[in-house]
Each structure stands twice: as C-alpha cells, then as structure tokens.
Amino acid sequence: MIEMKNVNEYILKTPLSIDDVLILHSGDKVLLNGEIYCARDATHRRMIADIKSGSELPFSLMNSTFYYAGPSPTPPGKVVGSVGPTTSSRMDQFLEYFLQRGLRSTIGKGERSSGIKKLLEKYNSVYFITCGGAAAYLSSFVVRSDLLGYEDLGAQALIRLWVRDLPLLVAYDSYGGDLFESGKIHHRRVNLIDWGSELSL
Q1: Boundaries of each Fe-S hydro-lyase tartrate dehydratase beta-type catalytic domain copy (predicted)?
Q2: To the nearest whole percent, how much of the chain has pLDDT over 70?
Q3: Range(s) of the domain holding residue 103
Q4: Per the confidence metrics, is the pTM higher than 0.70?
Q5: CATH code of the domain covering residue 50
Q6: Is 124 domain-assigned?
Q7: Contact status, residue 142 vs residue 79, Cβ threshold 8 Å
Q8: Are 72 and 81 in contact (CB under 8 A)?
Q9: Which residue did the predictor score with more confidence, 200 or 117?
Q10: pLDDT at site 77
C-alpha cells in the first residue's frame, strides 16, 4: 500500500550548501531566507553569452538560487512589484549549464521536462515550487530588491531579491523524488478506495 510520506519543515538561508540540499525530500516545506536571483529565459541567454565572452556575472553562481520570475514595476512606497513564478520548463534547456557552474536550487511553478530529475541528482540540486497566481502575496516576503543588470530586458532584467521566510515546497529533490508524481499516486489511490467503497454499498 502506497502512503504519502511524512513531510518535514525547514528554515533555510541562502547560499544553500550541498548539505542543505541533501536533507530535503520532495514534499518538504521550506521557509527560505537570503538572496535569490530573478532569471527567466532571456536572462539565461544573456548570462550564458556573457560567460562565454569572458565577462563576469555580478554575482557568484556557486550555491546560488534562481527564481524563475519577472517582477512587475515597483509601486511607490513598495520594495518590489508583484513577483510570481513563471513556468519552469521554459528554462530547462539552460539548467545543466548553470548546474555545472554551481547553481544549487531553482524556484518556479509546474512540472519540468524529462531528464531534469537526473540532473538534480547528478549535481546535488533541488527544485522548489511556490504558489502561482499569488504574485502580490509573494512580494510581501521580499525585503529588498536590487537591479543587477540587463535593464533593457524589462521584466526579464537580472534582479537580486532578499527574501524573508519565502514559503516553498520541494518539488524535485536530489534523490529522484517527485512531488507531482507522488501526488498523482496518492490521488489515484484515494480515488480507487472511494470507487471500491461505492462498489461495496
């Protein structure tokens, strides 16, 4: 009989170490603190072009965390505009390039393409998800925002966010664990039990 495993809760601070990642399992809850970097597909392309040309990025990739998001314009008196996650699979083509250079975790929404879980196992990395459709709410966990580069990309500029207790779930861990798959198994099992109960009436 398949059961949903116990869920743990952690408070973590970036930069995340390999040891931080290795304690995490799919389904775990995390409150994340520290620096994360907003980077979407155009940002990824620009960073790769800079690295290949010999230019240094304005932050260290080692043990860094990418947030797949593009903040909206900052309203007066606010730290940042709405800052919800975008679809992570759009960045899958770039992931291994940055994992090879020390990227430790990514944050976004949705399932990712085939092979991503094996990459996370290989490089001791983790994929977090956060709540889509709650961009204004998520901005309340941002205490500081800095423009680091690529201002011409608009919403896809490279931005550093300082977050406090940003709520996340571990979607893919570094052991091949998959929150989406375990959720589907649990859902099928519950439906099967309900169906069997109906047959017994």
Answers
A1: 12-182
A2: 87
A3: 9-200
A4: yes
A5: 3.20.130.10
A6: yes
A7: yes
A8: yes
A9: 117
A10: 82
Number of domain units in the chain:
1
Q: What is the pLDDT of residues 29-73, one digit of tens each?
A: 999 999 999 999 999 999 999 999 999 999 999 999 999 998 888
For residue 3, being part of any structural domain is answered with no
Structure tokens at 112: 């990712």
The answer to whether residue 2 sits within a structural domain is no
Q: Which two tokens stand for residue 53?
A: 């040309």
Residue 43 or 134, more confident: 43
Domain-embedded: residue 121: yes
